[in-house]
Amino acid sequence: QVQLVESGGGLVQPGGSLRLSCAASGNIFRLNAMGWYRQAPGKQRELVARITSDGSTNYADSVKGRSIISRDNAKKTVYLQMNSLKPEDTAVYYCNAQLIPYGLGLSVGDYWGQGTQVTVSS
Question: Tens digit of pLDDT for each residue in 56-101?
């Protein structure tokens, strides 16, 4: 069984900062790209940031310059540091990973965490 567990969400004032973490666990053969997505009420899920296994990153225009994605391959963990938060950043943030679990065929799968709530409000 493979599991992604997010943490670090919560309530923060505009202009504040949060650091989200997502740890992958279980019988993982190889961990490829990881990323963060978010979904606000009444809106579609959107990409926030993504990082490949070699450290290449990309960001949504709305968070570029305010957010930093990083990963610790030894811990199988991806992080999202968010600064200068705005009310429009309020959403449920989901961790995503493309990985190969142990099992028949060793095929690539797409996995999601349960999500963590980020609320930016005064």
Answer: 999 999 999 999 999 999 999 999 999 999 999 999 999 999 999 9
What distance in Å separates the CA atoms of residue 30 and residue 26, rounded to the nearest whole number? 11
Closest CA to 41 of 92, 86, 3: 92
DSSP β-ladder status, 10-12 and 18-26: unpaired
**Interatomic CA distance for residues 66 and 81, integer angstroms:** 8
d(CA 119, CA 88): 9
Distances in Å between the Cα of 103 and the Cα atoms of 4, 31, 65, 99, 111 are 18, 14, 40, 12, 15
Q: Distance between alpha carbon 57 and the CA centroid of its chain, in Å?
A: 12
